[in-house]
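S.,

Sequence below, as promised.
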Amino acid sequence: MLRILPFLVLLLWSSIALAKDIFIHSHHPVSKRFAIFEDNETVAYLYLTKPGAQRPEKDAVAYSRVPPAPEVDWKVIGQTGEVPPLPRDVASSQALIRNPREQEFTFKWSSSGEAVALLRSGVPIAFAAASEKFGYSKAVSKSSHLANAWDQKRYDAIFGK
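The prediction came back faster than expected:
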């Protein structure tokens, strides 16, 4: 038993370490679009792809695992292609989610497949629609190029009540 204990500890630790990143996806059979949710342990984004492709067409920041950044150097982000952090000046009181688990998240598609929402424990937190310039998120308090501030009426119009 004592010989197997270090192996069990290592196995448990590695499974916890591997579970930190979150990446889930879904495909809509009508629109041929993919929904992709990616959490890189700093910030999480919802993506809606072009039809028949895996290239994102629309997106919305979903939350941040770390406190929002005091400042963001958008020039550097543009040059490096890094995923931008959530800036403090647009973050809402709901922006910070420190220890999310993959099984908490699901997608909700519009009937046409032209829009998708990200739900956490059954509650929508972000959505992206092909018809909208930017996605919507509860993580932002004011609209920016990362997402529009949450609009419940718009959500209900697209996804129903």
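The first strand starts at residue 22 and ends at 27.

Coffee later?
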